[in-house]
Amino acid sequence: MKKFVSAAVIGGLLFAASAHASDGTITFTGSVTANSCTIKINGGSATATVALPAVSSSQLDAAGKTAGSTKITFDLADCVSGDAAATGAVKAFFEAGANVDVASGRLNNTASGTGAAKNVQLELVNSDDSVIKVGDVSSIKGGTLTAGAAPNDKKSSAQFAYAVRYFKSGADAVGAGTVSSSVTYSVVYQ
Fold first, then answer.
1. Is Signal a UniProt keyword of this protein (predicted)?
2. pLDDT above 80 for 149
3. What is the per-residue pLDDT across 28-65, written as a single tens digit (0 to 9) for each?
4. Following DSSP, what letter does each residue of 90-104 receive, concatenated?
5. Three-class SS state of 162
6. How far apart are CA 83 and CA 76, in angstroms?
7. Beta strands in 102-176 (DSSP E)
8. Buried b (16+ CB within 10 A) or exposed e, 167-190
9. Which of 45, 111, 126, 190 could cysteine-pair with 180, CB 3.0–4.6 Å?
């Protein structure tokens, strides 16, 4: 009897496995570049703190209003790709993370406690003021790597800018207080 039950169980498992045939294959492709650059944000290092100006809550009196736009300049220097100067388009990719409102692509205020501002997010924009949806690389613009002027110069550079600003979220009034958030970025060479 045990042999019959075991054979029946194995047969059933084989039938169940064969009943779920595959419908296709998804192939993923990508690339890892050898490009490397020295990165400075607002003249400092690759990791930076950007201080926005203090603004009045009256400047954020309706949903969707913005205030306090502050420039973020990326300077890339000494960019190389193998034995040659890196060339082509380059931009920052602002990565989705714990601080990002997935629906809007804006940065949530991570300041906490009674001193935290309410109903305010931070919004990143391109240099032409078009909105960046954090986590969506297609919404981000950048610059072009330019090779050095000297003959045989194997290094290139680029400068491009973005801005961050306060954004009034929701229908409730803005509550005065501190605003803080952060975003991780990667430089994307195209």
1. yes
2. no
3. 766 666 657 899 999 999 999 999 999 999 999 999 99
4. EEEEEE--TTEETTT
5. strand
6. 18
7. 106-108, 120-126, 143-147, 156-168
8. bbbeeeebeeeebebebebebebe
9. 111
Please write down the long-range contacts of 11-20, taking CB distance under 8 Å and 24 or more positions apart. none
Average pLDDT, stretch 82-98? 83
Place of tokens 């300049």: 73
Burial of 2 (0-12, 13-18, 19+ CB in 10 A): exposed
- Mean confidence (pLDDT) of the chain: 85
Tokens of 53: 């100006």
Which residues, including other chains, have CB under 8 Å from residue 99's CB and lie 6 or more apart?
107, 108, 110, 181, 182, 183
> Encoding tokens for residue 39?
């990165």
Query: Which amino acid would we find at residue 57?
Result: S
> Which pLDDT value is given to residue 79?
81
Residue 35's pLDDT is 57
